[in-house]
Amino acid sequence: MPAAAPQTGVTGEEAVLVLLAERAECATICPSEAARRLAGPEGDWRAEMDAVHTAVDALLEKGAIALTWKGEQKQKRRGPYRIARR
Description:
Arc Repressor Mutant, subunit A, four-stranded antiparallel sheet, single chain, alpha+beta
């Protein structure tokens, strides 16, 4: 099981899935939004980006999410991307 961020007690996978659940079904999120959720209001979100990328890779492998960029589907995480529900 992935480790939770000490600041918030939330894992990267949980952060991604909760943010997606809070949005409209067709909406996407930016990975930095998940990092901000992990870091908490006073935390360094940039330090959480590796955890978010790891979570995104795991969720993508499970088929739980899809990645897009400028409306186009991406098969794997490389370069800029947005996260969508599958």
